[in-house]
Amino acid sequence: MTPIEVVSLSQDAVKICLMISAPLLIVGMVVGIIIALFQATTQIQEMTLTFVPKIVAIMMTLLFFSSWMMTTMIDYTENLINSLPMIIR
After folding, report:
1. How far apart are CA 81 and CA 58, in angstroms?
2. What is residue 67's DSSP assignment?
């Protein structure tokens, strides 16, 4: 296994990881910014106010994107397992 193959596998793994986590992170960030703006304008500084909307939004996003996430992970894993004979050489 050459260093180029190792780098390629690592790049693919990082790319898949970022693709899978991006929707959840983006939704969490957007909801966090909206809640922060709301708290700043109303001067309500309740810490629990940030958690509940974020958790609900992330759970809804997870429900919406879970099939795509699983399909992406399964496709990557299948490609990795199918390319094992070429990698081992």
Report:
1. 31
2. H
Please state the φ and ψ torsions of residue 43, each to the nearest 5 degrees.
60, 30
Could you count the other beta carbons within 10 Å of the beta carbon of residue 27?
19
Q: Are the beta carbons of 54 and 32 closer than 8 angstroms?
A: yes
Q: What is the pTM of this model?
A: 0.81
Cα 35 to Cα 7: distance, rounded to the nearest angstrom: 40
Question: Degrees (nearest 5) of the Cα angle 52, 71, 14?
Answer: 75
pLDDT tens figures, 25-69: 999 999 999 999 999 999 888 888 889 999 999 999 999 999 999
33 three-state secondary structure: helix
